[in-house]
Here is the input.
Amino acid sequence: MNISFYELAKYIISNSSNDPQSIILLTQSLIEKKDWQGARNQIKSLLTHQPLKEVCLLMSKIEEGDSGDPQKVHAWVSRSNLGKLSEIWICQISGVSQSEWTSISKAGYFNSLEWKYPNKLLDLSKSDYEMESLVYRDN
Here is the structure.
């Protein structure tokens, strides 16, 4: 079965198209399609006063593909440093975070993981969570 990432994303989010994670998924698929205007229109509802770090990095990819303007790209990458982190799995008992859900946390507690925003970057230092970074290359 030959289905594009965009078609799959549209199908997955069909019942939750207004959810922020659904908007991010669809935006990612539009970026892959190189539909810069569509991606920009899709993500604009998430561009609040302090958007998520992930949203800022997606905007930098859109700017890089659409305008190729290094100043605009760098502005979004810089803004991502101030952006709110995405939700991750955090053990309610130990505070240790992890990128994937398991029934027993890395700290050894059963059914203790909670899907929430980390309080600070230090919470991530104790985990296997890797923050996606965007490296800008100047051709």
